[in-house]
Design goal:
binds zinc ion, binds manganese (II) ion, 5 helices, alpha+beta, two-stranded antiparallel sheet, three-stranded mixed sheet
Length: 141
């Protein structure tokens, strides 16, 4: 393979990976992306998926969300937005609330710094896990 086709193939791979990432709102793991991309490109390797997800994150096309001990999740929406993370089932959902620009101004004021970005995550129990909790409680009573 010459250099040019190698480049085209790499670009194509990255495009497919980004499309797969943008096709879901579930904030998938690299492994999930791998399973999906394989449907389009059976010969792709997990290593290629990891490398491309890293590149896409560096290019500002995707976000990597890491939650401590568990593996990273990826987001095809790189624009700043907030997430709710369920501590029971691990589900990560987008929050449809406006960005808190005032928060950046407060931090800039309080710390005498220039703020260019911020990240905010909310934790708790999702609707589904809450209803399971209610059911278990009702059975115990
Ligand atoms: Zn949950
Ligand atoms: Mn998101």
């Amino acid at each position: 393979m010459n250099k040019k086709t190698g480049f085209v193939r790499k670009t194509k791979q990255r495009e497919v990976i980004l499309n797969v990432l943008r096709s879901t709102k579930t904030h998938p793991t690299a492994d999930w992306v791998y399973q999906e991309v394989r449907k389009h490109m059976p010969n792709v390797s997990l290593g290629t998926i990891y490398r491309n997800l890293k590149t896409l994150t560096e290019m500002g096309e995707a976000l990597e969300l890491s939650y401590g001990s568990t593996y990273s999740r990826f987001d095809g929406n790189a624009k700043n937005h907030y997430h709710f993370v369920c501590q029971e089932c691990g589900e990560v959902v987008d929050l449809d609330i406006p960005l808190m620009a005032q928060l950046e101004a407060s931090v800039a004021d309080a710390a005498d710094v220039k703020v260019t970005d911020h990240r905010l995550e909310f934790y708790g129990q999702c609707e589904h896990c809450l209803s399971i909790g209610d059911m278990q409680q009702n059975q115990a009573n």
